[in-house]
Amino acid sequence: MAKIYSKKALVAQDLKPKKEVVSFLLSYSQALTVVKVNNKRIEIIAN
């Protein structure tokens, strides 16, 4: 029998990222450089 997913109540969860995840994303965004050459985008990650 098919399960009906629309009848479940949507509960808003208070999601908080870990400090390690935030640190990783910030360092990644700082290392990322996007260069446009002609009509192409080149993404470079400087480590």
Automatic annotation (TrEMBL):
The name this protein goes by in its record: Uncharacterized protein
